[in-house]
Amino acid sequence: SKAEMGHTCRGTINLATANITVEDSCNFIISNGGAQTYHLKASSEVERQRWVTALELAKAKAVKMLEESDDSGDESVSQTDKTELQNTLRILSSKVEDLSTCNDLIAKHGTALQRSLSELEALRLPPESTDKIKQVNERATLFRITSNAMINACRDFMLLAQTHGKKWQKSLQQERDQRIRLEETLEQLAKQHNHLERAFRGATVLPASTSGTGGSGKDLCCPAKGDLSDEDDDNNEFFDAPEIFPMPDVMGHKNVHPLSPLPRRTGSNISGTSSDISLDEQYKHQVEDTKKEKRTRIPYKPNYSLNLWSIMKNCIGKELSKIPMPVNFNEPLSMLQRLTEDLEYHELLDRAARCESSLEQLCYVAAFTVSSYSTTVFRTSKPFNPLLGETFELDRLEENGYRSLCEQVSHHPPAAAHHADSKNGWTLRQEIKITSKFRGKYLSIMPLGTIHCVFHSSGNHYTWKKVTTTVHNIIVGKLWIDQSGEIEIVNHKTGDKCILKFVPYSYFSRDVARKVTGEVMDPSGKVHFALLGTWDEKMDCYKVQMGTGDNGAEARPRAHEAEDSRVLLWKRNPLPKYAENMYYFSELALTLNAPENGTAPTDSRRRPDQRLMENGRWDEANAEKQRLEEKQRLSRKRREAEAARATEDGKAQLLDRGVPPRCPPQALTPLCPPGTPYDPYKPLWFERKKDPVTQELAHVYKGGYWESKEKQDWSLCPDIF
User: Fold this and answer.
1) Out of 163, 355, 476, 626, which could bridge 360 as a Cys pair, Cβ 3.0 to 4.6 Å?
2) Is the peptide bond before 574 cis (omega within 30 degrees of 0)?
3) Pairing relationship of beta strands 27-31 and 19-22 according to DSSP bridges
4) Is the CB of residue 390 less than 8 Å from the CB of residue 337?
5) What is the b/e burial string over 675-685, where b = at least 16 CB atoms within 10 angstroms of the residue's CB?
6) Where do the DSSP E strands lie in 497-561?
7) What is the pTM of this model?
8) Is there a contact between 565 and 360 (Cβ–Cβ < 8 Å)?
9) Residues 6 or more apart in contact with residue 457 via CB below 8 angstroms
10) For residues 391 and 716, what is the distance between their CA atoms, to the nearest angstrom?
């Protein structure tokens, strides 16, 4: 039935063109003669015959409907489309008439030309001239024949257009109707799913007095992308949180139980702080609360409802970073802060720095690479796209021995540069460009760019790239995330290499979900360590025991690794209590947006729309987000206009001195896509250089940030908020 299409259908085939063949007593095949072939098995011969008979009847009905639709004329074509078709045919007819007039003129002048040539032939001329005249006469005749053929072809084209025009128009209309039906079906499925989720939550969420363990289950968490609204496409109404929905106040009232009932609120005043207090005052107040100790919770996510399909149906196949999205799809962190979360398991690099063997060190680097994905397993919301020039610092020099800086260095394409230094003997740097495509059922996120890790004492320099992240069930069903692809980690000093394989989830596979395997090998390709684990839980390392062949020569690694050689490289930290109500943030993620004194005015913590969204004031956050994006657009246009003016002035000066101008700036900016205006923006803390190891152009930290912070001199920072 249609109701089952969303969760049990594995494909479709057109019965009108399908071939149904019986294979044996219980098996039969349905094929369309092309790529689609379905092998089906019934429980008995009688059951098989019932299915074949039903399918044959359905095929006959489908064929009959197809024939009727072919012969039904233009009943389904709208009056507007009919008028448009008639106008097109009228224009084609007039053009053919023009061609006919030209043909008549060609024939008239061609006849006159031939008459003149015949008169010339009658004259007494030298033999050479007579031959030339005959050649010209023949060519004139051929010209007339060709022009007649052209006119006839044009008439045939017009007749063909008239004959098939109605059929083409009808096919187009059928495609439109099918698209509308598909949209309506998907929206209906989404609404049904929403009703089921609400009914389930209503059945499981108990009053605060009886829910001693409530709030820890996954079902109490609202979907990360927002519920699908029951409203129409044009009415994206936000719904307030239910009375018993937990939202603790992290601003001051810390003794309130997280599941105690809250008074009903209306409008946009849903944060833990009164809307009468200004954002600056809130920021100062939060700084005072958080500067002594790291915060362990944030306001719970409001239970807002949003019509997801009304927004996403126009995004299929597009680059998601160029589509304006409401904050309802976001989590209260920016992409720069998400990038900094790669350092959650920084102790793996600390241990790697103490390794004497480069192969053992590579095992820890590989575990660090995998650990950066552990925070994504439940994090289905998207981070805020950073504004151009936005920064984020994380100074953990006293507690953990490292400090980190990120800066948004490009807006189109969006690119962020990251640099982290540790006094424990390592440096991590990367420039990541995030590209994403919405494919209808799923969203693919492809990070582009190379990550570098350098260990100071040994000089070992490792590089790798990230794998593709896929968010499934965008429209219907529970959102879930998968990682897939291969990572090659290379030690450019020794030539050691590690290949990590992220196994994509498969419904039919017996493997453990989210599996990661890896091999650590020396420059000759000999495997020394095998890695095994999952990207959301842990990674183990096994020392590969090498056997010997019959001739005493070294043989291939044994299929099994000795259990006694197993070493636990990394294990995921447990999530904080009630994390399902706080966007599934880890302990580190909960602290990233906590206000801090002395940060740059461009720091993500100071971004107003992100702060409003964290405090639960989503309506105000959406308005603020639009203001910031418009401000960024105006700044870009101003820079482009200034660059264009400077270019024109430079050309004029060169021409005055008689010097030809060189190529325009557009040719010198590989960051700009073809056809886009030249944006002369230069990052403040990073500069673009050619990497000597990978030979790639990348933004590298040029220094100066921490010195400016120490002096509290932020005069060079742009006004972006």
Assistant:
1) 355
2) no
3) antiparallel
4) no
5) eeebbebebbb
6) 497-502, 515-521, 527-534, 538-543, 546-548, 554-557
7) 0.60
8) no
9) 353, 425
10) 13
In sequence order, which residues have a C-beta less than 8 Å from that of residue 397 and are 6 or more positions away? 403, 423
DSSP string, 184-196: HHHHHHHHHHHHH
CB 366 within 8 A of CB 348: no
pLDDT tens digit sequence for 201-235 = 776 544 443 334 333 333 333 333 333 333 333 33
Q: At a CB cut-off of 8 Å and minimum separation 6, what does 19 contact?
A: 29, 30, 31, 32, 33
Residues 6+ apart with CB under 8 A from 222: 301, 303, 304
What count of other Cβ atoms lies within 10 Å of the Cβ of residue 645?
10
Contact indicator for 461, 437 with CB cutoff of 8 Å: no
The DSSP code for 327 is G
Sign of CA dihedral 580, 586, 589, 590: positive
Cα dihedral sign, 664-666-670-675? negative
Token digits for 530? 């095998």
Q: How many CB atoms lie within 10 A of CB 504?
A: 15
The two three-digit tokens of residue 575, written as one number: 């999530």
User: If you write DSSP's letter for every residue of 88-107 in order, what string do you get?
Assistant: HHHHHHHHHHHHHHHHHHHH
CA distances from 624 to 175, 396, 612 (A): 40, 31, 9
Q: Which segments within 266-360 are labelled E, that is strand? A: 305-306, 330-334
Both tokens assigned to 645: 């003016």
What are the residue ranges in the chain where pLDDT is below 70? Answer: 1-8, 33-35, 68-82, 203-292, 305-324, 546-563, 651-679
> What angle is formed at CA 74 by the lines to CA 71 and CA 76, rounded to 5 degrees?
105
Q: Which residues contact 559 (CB under 8 A, 6 or more apart)?
A: none
Name the phi and psi angles at 348, rounded to 5: -65, -40
Question: Could you give the residue ranges of the DSSP H alpha helices within 11-124?
Answer: 45-71, 79-122
Contacts of 426 (CB under 8 A, 6+ apart): 349, 350, 352, 353, 453, 454, 455, 456
Using alpha carbons only, what angle is made at residue 121 by residues 117 and 127, rounded to the nearest 5 degrees? Answer: 125
3-state helix, strand, coil in the chain (%, to 5): 40, 20, 40
For the chain, the residue count is 721
Q: Cα-flanking dihedrals φ and ψ of residue 641, to 5°?
A: -65, -45
The predicted-structure confidence for 471-516, as pLDDT tens digits, reads as follows: 888 777 788 899 999 999 999 999 999 999 999 988 777 888 899 9
Cβ–Cβ < 8 Å for 397, 423: yes
Residue pair 221/215 in contact (Cβ under 8 Å)? The answer is: no
Question: At which residue do the structure tokens 């989210």 appear?
Answer: 514
Residue 371 burial (CB count, 10 A) = 25
Supply the DSSP string of 141-152, one letter for each residue.
HHHHHHHHHHHH
What residue type is 366 in one-letter code?
A: A
Candidates 273, 420, 329, 374; CA nearest to 588 is: 374
Tokens, residue 138: 């023949």
